[in-house]
Amino acid sequence: MWTFDERTTVANDTLTITDNRTGKTYEVPIADETIRAMDLRQIKVNDDDFGLMTYDPGFTNTASTRSAVTFIDGDKGILRYRGYPIEQLAEQSSFLEVAYLILKGELPTQGELDEWVYGVTHHTFLHENIRKLMDGFRYDAHPMGVFVSTVAALSTFYVDAKLIHNSEDRQHQIERLVAKTPTIAAFAYRHMMGLPYVYPNNTLSYPGNFLNMMFSTAAGYEIDPVLERALDVLFILHADHEQNCSANAMRSVGSSESDPYCSMAAAAAALYGPLHGGANEMVLRMLREIGDVTNVPAYIKRVKDREVRLMGFGHRVYKNYDPRAKVIKEVAYQVFDVTGRNPLIDIALELERIALEDSFFVERKLYPNVDFYSGIIYEAMQFPVAMFPVLFAIGRTPGWLAQWQELLTDSEQRIARPRQIYTGYEQRDYIAIGKRTDIRRMAGGS
Length: 446
Ligand code: CMC
Prior knowledge:
three-stranded antiparallel β-sheet
């Protein structure tokens, strides 16, 4: 790995820019197929000029960081964590091993894995006051809102959370967060259902313990190994996705040196939105609304008329089939062997079939994304739709933390603070309140 300026550049790796306002020519270096936005600042009309900026709402063509965590080739449909293809990890690895890989950069030895799993397993309990705090939410509170708030509240329980520049302290918070998110998620669900909390069981696997905390009753709960593995695979598939909306929120809040609990609460809040991790919930609601395979063509028409979006379709980066969706589709059938077939799968398959043949979707390169099939599996496993984004958040926790850690150890990073193009008024004088309506009318306002 190297820094921007250390990279091997050949003499021709430059961009020559002519400013037609002044006739001046500038040469800026190109490295890793990028130019530095700050290299444009020298381009000015006169000395008073601030200098040229780029305008990129939604960061569609701006690299905000250098990162060694996740590689995506959206055109080819490739996703790798630390160089390992997602398909191999989903087939051969476990979520906690993948979390270690994402966080530390390498696959663990057996000893390292045992130590990591032991550490996570023994931090799954919540302080009793956190449980009491969760009790205070309204009886039907959405579990994602409860999750976001409770993760933020953890910051008040760990004073060492503020020691973000100490790598040992960071490791403590990372272990705690990976360990406690399933407990918070399960407690949020039990609260919503009015059920007594089930405390963590250290003899169970990471996904097994979560299933037990979710679904155990007075009669106990038998963990089905197929469902346990399916959930582990779903967590693996969600573990990181480079600079997505929530990772960007984690980095943005983290860049002000906020503690990891508050930063991760911000990331989870970003995930909650229906265009991001809330999409799987919206997919299920959409499939239920469609109701029957025969209604699919009419729904596709509504999408093309821009009345609604086809949830679970399209992606900022993938302009090909999302590789995670391919794995999930396979997992769905394994889960259905245990739970019985979720009839919504037929509606989803028909939507996918029609969409992939229709020029509206083909021209825009809209393919199923990770959320298209995950909700159908979750529902078959008896998770209510409100829990879908929470499940996404459990899986994404190591990714957020790896992005946060990378930010803090990257000497090039500074507080995130974009520029703007100001479109408001020039300076104007304050108007006494009694005169304002008249003035606005005179200016043509309402
Ligand atoms: N249904 C219908 N049309 C769509 C869709 C969709 N799901 N997604 C994009 N388009 C159209 C959009 O209207 C636009 O058409 P035009 O150029 O004619 O105006 C074109 O495709 C490009 O769309 P965009 O909104 O500029 O693309 P974006 O990169 O800004 O948005 C997205 C990406 C994921 C927000 C969007 O595809 C979307 O809203 N999808 C549905 C929500 C969803 O499934 N989100 C989960 C994403 S995967 C999980 C995650 O990582 O969060």
